[in-house]
Design goal:
binds ligand AL7; about 260 residues; about 30% strand; binds zinc ion; 13-stranded mixed sheet; two-stranded parallel ribbon; 15 strands; mainly beta
């Protein structure tokens, strides 16, 4: 099983022991410095075609809460921006902090948000399976959306109201008819760079597209994420799921880009 986590012994600073790519040349997340982002005239707008998306389930995988989609055809894709073809939506999940402190993975000029939503897509044009795509340099496209603490988010309730059903690691339940379009901010201005999964296996296979505009959610809604447990129901050690974020990694020889 997964022998990694976010604790002192098994957390991000220890991942390199089992996953040496943790010290690679295109690791994620990064600290985004807006003034250093290079304008790129070849970057067009991104298009999210989620209208026919089919959510299937919501689950606690011991690292986050994940909503899985039917990715057996191109019914829900992201395209445009830095992408050469459409990438299929496979799942989305969140990263968050402890009481009132940081929680996002990417930071902006050194400042973190309370949480970060990741919509994971894969290149089904070039690769036959998700697993093949997840190890290819242009295999995945992850859309990152910051969550800022403030007023209640009307639609996030659809998710936070069912978290009690997936409290423990390994629990899952039906979650049909959810369209993540309702979690998007009003404008899709973005930064983009070549990076990796932010969790083991840390594959350097992700084209990151991080939206500039956060969505606003309430402290109460953020608190609902913290009823989740890293641990399974049978384990006697209760481990509240929080601070499940990797800190920013060295940019190295990469250039952060933005649309003109
Ligand atoms: C546990 N964390 C997820 C692992 N996944 C996974 C699943 C199946 C195979 C595989 O590699 C072969 C990886 S994943 O690709 O769904 C992603 S994306 C991602 S993030 N934070 O960078 O957006 C974390 C994870
Ligand atoms: Zn993630």
């Amino acid at each position: 099983g997964d022998h990694w986590g976010y604790g002192k012994e098994d957390g991000p600073s220890a991942w390199h022991r089992h996953y040496p790519v943790a010290k690679g040349s295109r690791q994620s997340p990064i600290d985004i410095i807006p003034d250093e982002a290079r304008r790129d005239s070849s970057l067009g707008p991104i298009f999210l075609k989620y209208d026919r998306c089919t959510s299937l389930s919501i689950a606690n995988n011991g690292h986050s809460v994940v909503v899985e989609f039917d990715d057996s055809d191109d019914r829900s894709v992201i395209q445009g921006g830095p992408l050469d073809n459409p990438y299929r939506l496979k799942q989305f999940h969140f990263h968050w902090g402890g009481k009132g402190c940081e929680g996002s993975e990417h930071t902006v000029a050194g400042v973190g948000y309370a949480s970060e939503l990741h919509l994971v897509h894969w290149n089904a044009v070039k690769y036959t399976t998700y697993e093949d795509a997840a190890t290819a340099p242009d295999g995945l496209a992850v859309l990152g959306i910051f969550l800022e603490q403030g007023d209640d988010h009307r639609w996030l309730h659809t998710i936070t109201d069912v978290l009690y059903m997936v409290k423990f690691k390994g629990s899952a339940t039906n979650f049909k008819g959810f369209n993540p379009k309702c979690l998007l901010p009003s404008n899709l201005h973005y930064w983009t760079y070549l990076g990796s999964l932010t969790t083991p296996p840390l594959h350097e296979s992700v084209i990151w597209i991080v939206l500039k505009e956060p969505i606003v959610v309430s402290e109460k809604q953020l608190g609902m994420f913290r009823i989740l447990q890293f641990s399974g129901e049978e384990e006697d050690q209760r481990m509240r799921m929080e601070n499940n974020f990797r800190p920013p990694q060295p940019l190295k020889e990469r250039i952060l880009k933005k649309r003109c």
